[in-house]
């Protein structure tokens, strides 16, 4: 699988019409299944090539699978991960919730693919947030929005009160929900974190929800893949429009850009859409 150096971000993000939106997920699924089919064919071809050559290994290496079978399995896993990833980046939070709840295996597959990517990154942004929280002597209330496997809570959950939310309760630390609508009262948290989690096309709803649960003066911390943010000023402006003030950005990492905002007022009641602010992050095939 590719590392993030090779991550590509698509430039064309348009707000779907209602008719498009209805079919979007199915189309992405179809396209991705096609891609998976193509990859399977390729894997079969390369398997046949290898099998006919003198270098082919036939011994069973792991779990009763031959080297060739393992290679094919990896390819298929990669294809599934890419289509799930793309589906999550090109649909709304509500649709994403529907999708993973109708088939929770999707979430597991996404996470095993995601973890495989993360292992290759020189710095995992979660570790930056963990370091930050560890340095805070005062006990804070933290919301980890789009927490994945909830590593943040597993690591600093003794020192601080960490609420972890994601589409599926991967473990007991996690409350399953769409992060556009989390079960926390208003003004309840000191720090809200989105670590690579602004995936939905309606991610400004996630930001507005973070504003609702944060107290005035509370911190909003975001890490996103650099290539997703084509116009940093426009992104910052959109967040400031939701009641935040930029405290700092950190672009020192080649792969991730980090933003710290402070909540200065409540989000306006009406949400102005800002399509195209964040591009989907599409992983290329190796
Ligand atoms: N923050 C974690 C996981 C990042 S992967 C980490 O850095 O390790 C992005 C996560 O956001 C995924 O687990 C995905 O399921 C979650 N996510 C995306 N859209 C979501 C939504 N609308 N509601 C809840 N979780 C969402």
From TrEMBL:
The yes or no answer to whether the keyword Transferase is present is yes
- This protein's UniProt keywords: Methyltransferase, Transferase
> Does the entry feature the keyword Methyltransferase, yes or no?
yes
User: Any idea of its EC number?
Assistant: 2.1.1.287
This chain's protein is named: 25S rRNA (Adenine645-N1)-methyltransferase
Native species of this protein? Coemansia aciculifera
């Amino acid at each position: 699988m590719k590392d993030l150096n090779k991550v590509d971000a698509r430039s064309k993000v348009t707000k779907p019409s209602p008719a498009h939106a209805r079919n979007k997920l199915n189309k992405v699924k179809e396209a991705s299944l096609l891609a998976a089919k193509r990859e399977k064919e390729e894997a079969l071809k390369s398997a046949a090539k290898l099998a006919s050559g003198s270098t082919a290994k036939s011994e069973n290496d792991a779990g009763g699978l031959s080297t060739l079978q393992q290679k094919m399995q990896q390819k298929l896993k990669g294809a599934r991960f890419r289509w799930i990833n793309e589906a999550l980046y090109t649909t709304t939070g509500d649709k994403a919730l529907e999708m993973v709840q109708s088939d929770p295996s999707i979430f597991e597959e996404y996470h095993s693919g995601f973890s495989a990517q993360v292992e290759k990154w020189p710095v995992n942004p979660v570790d930056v947030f963990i370091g930050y929280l560890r340095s805070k002597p005062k006990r804070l209330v933290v919301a980890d929005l789009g927490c994945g496997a909830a590593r943040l809570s597993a690591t600093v959950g003794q020192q601080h009160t960490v609420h972890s939310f994601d589409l599926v309760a991967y473990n007991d630390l996690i409350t399953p929900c769409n992060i556009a609508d989390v079960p926390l009262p208003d003004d309840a948290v000191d720090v809200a974190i989105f670590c690579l989690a602004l995936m939905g096309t309606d991610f400004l709803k996630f930001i507005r929800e973070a504003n609702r649960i944060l107290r005035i003066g509370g911190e909003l911390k975001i890490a996103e893949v650099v290539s997703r943010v084509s116009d940093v000023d426009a992104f910052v402006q959109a967040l400031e429009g939701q009641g935040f003030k930029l405290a700092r950005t950190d672009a020192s990492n080649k792969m991730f850009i980090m933003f710290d905002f402070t909540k200065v007022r409540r989000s306006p009641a009406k949400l102005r859409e800002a399509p195209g602010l964040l591009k989907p992050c599409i992983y290329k095939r190796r």
